[in-house]
Amino acid sequence: METLSRSVQTLEEHHTVISFSCGIDALDRYFQQQAIHEVRRRVAAAFVLVDNVSPHILGYYTLSAEVIDVEDLSPEIAKKLPRYPRLPATLIGRLAVAQNCQGQGIGEFLLIDALKRSLENASTIGSIAVVVDTLEERARQFYLYYDFIPFQDSPKRLFLPMKTIEKLLR
User: How many CA atoms lie within 13 Å of 12's alpha carbon, on the beta-carbon side?
Assistant: First the structure.
């Protein structure tokens, strides 16, 4: 996906991650110290938004496989799903925007890119929803704005059904 001089790329060894800072220590530490190792081990797929003119990473997100326990969903949602105790999903494990780029729509851009990839992959490897675990209230509000639904007993854990994503991306 490209916008002007920016593109989303798979995280690779040549990307300069050490200088990335979003202002949240856990997200910065993960990206600087763990992300490339998880990519190598296929624990997560990591994607970076880069400025094609400079080596700066403007933001990143990770995707991996997830399982939803149907009993964690509200009865209204669960009754619409196949009657399996656990169903496949896609996890946005982390999503962060560099501090100097915040407030410019990059978070939304990265989220839409992650949802698009998740939907495309759902036709190859089943996934009924995209799941996020929010660390802070600001992140929770960000996802709620895009119609993510809280899990029944875990308000910081949210999901967006693939059917909703499909409608959103049309």
Answer: 6
Torsion sign across C-alpha atoms 80, 87, 34, 136: positive
Core vs surface per residue 67-77: b (16+ CB within 10 A) or e: ebebeebeeeb
Q: How many CB atoms lie within 10 A of CB 165?
A: 23
pLDDT digit string, tens, across residues 97-151: 999 999 999 999 999 999 999 999 999 999 999 999 998 999 999 999 999 999 9
- Residues recorded for the chain: 170
CA 32/CA 22 separation, integer angstroms = 11
Residue 77 is given by DSSP the state H
